[in-house]
């Protein structure tokens, strides 16, 4: 299983640029953050960052507002607790920024975004799961 250190290019959101979203920097904290790929299922199936879970934010914008049991039934993995860190990524950073804003509205405080997202990860030779 990949650790948080397996995300070498994780960048933080700046409070001034994106009000209400807490900056998240790489560290050796335990447990690692929940890494969430917000691309659509066919994009996710074509390759994703190891340990990431798929949450297609475009087709499921209500996902983070669902009760935990509905979330599990719809997506097949447990909804992250609101006290945990969550980090979003997509293809180029647009959808992940939207997901981060939705997470803050839904009550998460420890929210981050991998700004370079999948394109940067792939360009830099990051490990890929199918």
From TrEMBL:
UniProt entry tagged with the keyword Transferase: yes
Keyword Hydrolase: no
One Pfam family matching this protein: Rhodanese
Molecular function in Gene Ontology: thiosulfate-cyanide sulfurtransferase activity
InterPro entries: Rhodanese-like_dom, Rhodanese-like_dom_sf, Thiosulphate_STrfase_CS
Domain Rhodanese: 29-130
Keywords: Transferase
UniProt xrefs under SUPFAM superfamilies: Rhodanese/Cell cycle control phosphatase (SSF52821)
SMART domains, per the entry: RHOD
Gene3D superfamilies hit by this protein: Rhodanese-like domain
GO cellular component: a single term: mitochondrion
Residues covered by region (Disordered): 23-53
Name used for this protein in its record: Sulfurtransferase
Protein's organism: Glutinoglossum americanum
